[in-house]
Amino acid sequence: MNSRERFLAALKGEKVDRPAVAHVAVLTSLELQEHTGCWMPSVHHDAAQQAALLAANHDVLGYDAVGFLINYFIEPAALGTAMEWGSPSELPMYRSHPWQRIEDTAIPSDILSRPPICTGIETIRYAKQHYGERMGIIGKVMGPFSMVQVMHGLEATMLALVEDPECIVAFMDRTIDLLADYANAQFAEGADAIVIGEGGAGAQMLSPAMYERYLLPVHQRLVRRIEGPAILHICGDIRPRLAMLAQTGIACFNFDWAIPPQDMVEAARGHFTVMGNINTSDLLYGTQETLEKQVEECLCAGVHIISPGCALSPRCPNRNLRVLPDFTAKWKKH
User: Fold this and answer.
1) How far apart are CA 59 and CA 326, in angstroms?
2) pLDDT digit string, tens, across residues 138-165
3) Which domains does the chain have, with CATH numbers?
4) What band does 5 get if pLDDT is binned at 50, 70 and 90?
5) What are the two backbone dihedrals, phi and then psi, of residue 169, each rounded to the nearest 5 degrees?
6) Pairing relation of β-strands 65-67 and 136-142?
7) Is 307 helix (H, G, I), strand (E, B) or coil?
8) DSSP sequence for 198-224
9) Who contacts 38 (Cβ-Cβ below 8 Å, separation ≥6)?
10) Which one, of 146, 127, 148, 6, lies nearest residue 63 by Cα?
11) Helix, strand, coil content of the chain in percent (nearest 5)
12) Which of 124, 128, 131, 249 is nearest to 183 (CA)?
């Protein structure tokens, strides 16, 4: 098997020659930027540079599949959210909240041709053309709740969820067409899977009852609209919600380090595959021994795809990022 074949088989829960290693949240490093000569923040606006930088996650680090879009806030930026584009060591961040009323939520008909959405689509096209035969190509969209937190404001969103939850549901409904169309545009250009980044719906943000009542139906509608394998990521220890994930229709769940791998594998069995859940703080500051123990715990539990549990700091050293593929390649099940 080559890397792409391994990733696609693992994503489906099929037999593989060894477990796959991939990432869906942000993964690049200062060392990789220096190695490729492709630097943030300019890569956020240049499809070929972004694709070349992220292909190094396979060519230099050894990951089987690569998430090719760095900026988490692509859709809000295209809708007019003020952005700070960061630096080689800092990821982009939003600075305004354009949706204050439901009347503000009109999506322009040409939204897929507006930057940085069009840059994201072009990045997937370039990645498929130049790297797609030897590594998995993973695209990305925001999660509906996370997008509303950006567009409406975090504090305003959480307050309205208590005082006027139907307003937040209406905001989320307005995101579905955009997110589905953007995901499907990436599939049309060669993406093998799409991650739905729903970090804002983490364990400290929504109770299980709130998730089931307000967000689960939105996730179901979005996943039904996406024309290919969807990987969902939610931050934190969401064990009380795990049984509900089987109702979403996702192909795979990227789980955070706070969830024990064995618990995650058991909850997913027969419903979807899982990828995770190496501690991102340890990838930044930890030792090889610490990281190897986490990878081994995941492998022994039956995690299908080894990956970081969330987004990574660009300051992570390459030596730590390599532990995941290096240890997985030599691991033997006892």
Assistant:
1) 13
2) 999 999 999 999 999 999 999 999 999 9
3) 3-330 (3.20.20.210)
4) very high
5) -60, -40
6) parallel
7) strand
8) -GGG-TTT--HHHIIIIIHHHHHHHHH
9) 46, 49, 50, 52, 53
10) 6
11) 50, 15, 35
12) 124
Using omega within 30 degrees of 0 as the cis cutoff, is the peptide bond preceding 317 cis?
no
**Integer Cα distance of 292 and 328 in angstroms:** 9
Tell me the DSSP string of 261-277: HHHHHHHHTTT-EEEEE
Peptide bond into 41 cis (omega under 30): yes
pTM of the model: 0.97
Q: What is the mean pLDDT of residues 83-102?
A: 97
AA letter at 179:
L
Supply φ then ψ for residue 240, to 5 degrees: -65, -15
CB 102: neighbour CB atoms within 10 A?
13
Structure tokens at 264: 């995650």
Per-residue pLDDT of 163-211, as tens digits, reads 999 999 999 999 999 999 999 999 999 999 999 999 999 989 999 999 9
Distance CA 271, CA 12 (A): 10
Joined tokens for residue 219: 């996730």
Closest CA to 64 of 10, 124, 13: 10
Amino acid at 176: I
Structure tokens at 322: 């390599």
d(CA 184, CA 23): 20
Q: Which residue has the tokens 């391994």?
A: 6
132 secondary structure, DSSP code: T
Q: How long a stretch of residues is the chain? A: 334
Contact 171, 153 (CB under 8 A): no
CA pair distance 233, 138, nearest whole angstrom: 13
Specify whether the CB–CB gap between 232 and 198 falls below 8 A.
yes
Cis upstream peptide for 318 (omega within 30°): no
Angle between helices 165-188 and 144-152 (to 10 degrees): 120
